UniProtKB/TrEMBL annotation:
SUPFAM superfamilies: Nucleotide-diphospho-sugar transferases (SSF53448). InterPro entries: MobA-like_NTP_Trfase, Nucleotide-diphossugar_trans. CDD domains: GT_2_like_f (cd04182). It holds the Pfam family NTP_transf_3. It comes from Streptomyces venezuelae. Coiled coil: none annotated. Residues 16-177 form the MobA-like NTP transferase domain. This is 4-diphosphocytidyl-2C-methyl-D-erythritol synthase. GO terms for molecular function: nucleotidyltransferase activity.
Amino acid sequence: MPANHPTHSGPPLIAGLLLAAGGGRRLGGRPKALLPYRGRPLVENAVRVLREAGCGPVHVVLGASAAEVRERADLAGCVVVDNPDWAQGMGSSLRAGLASLAGTGAGAALVSLVDQPGIGAAAVARVLAAYRSPASLVAAAYGGERGHPVLFGADRWADIAATATGDKGARVHLARHAGELMLVECSDIAEAFDIDTPPDLVRLL
């Protein structure tokens, strides 16, 4: 049996993979993981959402100001992955995160972004519920448009890692396998905005 396939009885493990390495270039160099949200660093909210939705284990990929994030944010119980190549783009963080999941027995990785606080546990759980096998490919949709989170069955990790470069992330894999992608509409329970620029910060209040 392949190493990434579940070997225990019961429901398969679906790991939460949180990409939180961004340096917030358009925010004046403020690392997104440390943006204040409800009195705590934004990364803590993203971890809580994954856990409440049923993901386990939760792996968090850090990059910009990683040491400061470790010091200021409560990431207890998470597997924290340092990505020294974070400045090369999201693809490097996705590769680092998927590599960290090798041997965990997870049947899939649910990938979420640290800067989307409008996506809560209800939307993540809806995507999780669409898992069928290690070949699953599922994404949340908003008005029919693909967004996050995205669930990648373990059988897909090698190809995603091989094609994730720059800021493309998993786009190459998703484009090649568009006919296999299951979209799960979440616009009724979530808002898929990003915190990218100073005007966006009002959404954290």
